[in-house]
Amino acid sequence: MRIIPAIDIIDGKCVRLSKGDYNTKKIYNENPLEVALQFEAHGIQCLHLVDLDGAKSNHIVNHKVLEQIASKTQLKIDFGGGLKHHEDVRIAFESGAQQITGGSIALKARETFVGWIQKYGPRKIILGADAIDERIAISGWQEESNTSVVPFIKEYQRHGIKYVICTDISKDGMLQGPAFELYQKILAKTKKWETRITGSGVEDEEVLGIHLIASGGISHFDELAKLADIGCEGTIIGKAIYENRISLKQLERYILANGT
After folding, report:
1. 130 flagged as catalytic
2. Most buried by CB count within 10 Å: which residue of 87, 140, 171, 204?
3. Catalytic residue among 51, 130, 168, 172
């Protein structure tokens, strides 16, 4: 399971929110690059970078922060927040993002999001399926919809989506543990089987499904093993790192032991 620390950006600074509420903003570092370099120094290879200003403004804002981190580290960055137009996506990729995450756009402008999958390929586009009570929330989590999370994901499976980040918003930033049951449900409902005939004529059944990335609520190091056992491909860790609930040394040892 990949370990993916999060850096959330407001006004160019590294912050964390609770339950997506901008009024709970806490600044942890005024230099996001410094934080990214610390992650890289401990063997971390991936980064989840969120433009919270962009999420609120409905267009990319903090692409210069993305560009700086991408140019001065080897981290594989997935970038999200405010990506609503083709130009936003172009800027994100040109600024160094390896992948981009679309949430609100995938609900409000399905044709546009499907167009991104077709243009850039399903390994470059991540579906953001963030939910409250298993219903998708959008616009920086400020707006709830009537769309259920599992059908939402399955719709985009049909369009070839491979990677899904799911945050249970009620748990985000609360340090009370992740939404294990929700992730189990998603993985069970989105699993597919494909039967292939091998060269020797023998049928070989392959299990196909999404690469689910768990996000929100991580509070203790021991929770990582449970998320891996469930079948999560990755987990995003934010406040637990910044509040020293999980140390970078622990994550470094986990990465070395598991080769992720």
Report:
1. yes
2. 140
3. 130
